[in-house]
Amino acid sequence: MTRPRRSVPSVDGMGRTKAGDGRLLQPMRHVQWLWKTQLGIDHAGSRWVVESNHGDGEERIDLYRDAIHVAKATSPARFAVPDGRIEARITMGQVRRARLVTPAGTVRMDPEPGTAEHGRARLAERFPVASAVVAAVSLAVVLAAAVLELPQLVQTITHVEVVETWLGWSFDSPVRLPAWANVAVVVAAAAASAERGLRFRHIPGLDE
Asked: Where is this region: Disordered (predicted)?
């Protein structure tokens, strides 16, 4: 028996937004948190959910109203909703921004059950001390990686012949790590940045 399709509420798109196809929102299952995230908020008598699936290689954000797909856009996305708008920016699987903006103010959307962000929030609620320690370590790793890697990056760029000629000078980094150490630092920084992303913490230029 074919399930009747519910009518699709109208949502006026903004920017690169396109209309949805009316499909039903599927709840998070099993290990989908590795490549998918959902964030929701109650507004104007409806439940609004934005979903991003970076497993498909596209930075597309889908909008659902009461579990029905009503709009889609590339990130960063902006969707017009009654008396306001929903703004979302999800890059490389990390939530940079997901919020409802109305004349009354701005409210952040909450991660839906089953997402990595929701699991991180539950960890913070159940084990606040351990959560604080992990948060401090992740910040320290990101900052340390910046201190170690940025000077080497500047050296590499300024020693390119064209760049050096244009600038009239070059920079010699006081930090010089072997290749394996640089790889280890980058991997650790990526892991720390991902952990910070689950808590919606970002330092422009570092947590990227």
From this structure: 1-21
Res 203: pLDDT? 66
pLDDT above 70 coverage of the chain, percent: 89
Residues contacting residue 124 through CB under 8 Å, at least 6 positions apart? 131, 199
Segment 178-197 mean pLDDT = 92
Coil, strand or helix: which one is 136? helix
Adjacency order of strands within the sheet including 77-81: 77-81, 84-91, 94-102, 105-108
What pLDDT does residue 14 have?
Answer: 40
pLDDT of residue 204: 63
**28-29-31 Cα angle (round to 5):** 110
Q: Which residues pair with 60 in a beta bridge?
A: 74
CA 203 to CA 180: how far, in whole Å?
A: 26
Q: What are phi and psi of 133, to 5 degrees?
A: -65, -45
Name residues whose C-beta falls within 8 Å of residue 109's C-beta, 6 or more positions apart in sequence: 39, 40, 41, 48, 50, 86, 88, 98, 99, 100
Domain parsing of the chain, residue ranges: 18-111, 127-198
Helix 179-198 / helix 116-126 crossing angle, nearest 10 deg? 80
- Report cis status (omega within 30 of 0) of the bond before 204: no
What's the pLDDT band for 206 if we cut at 50, 70, 90? low
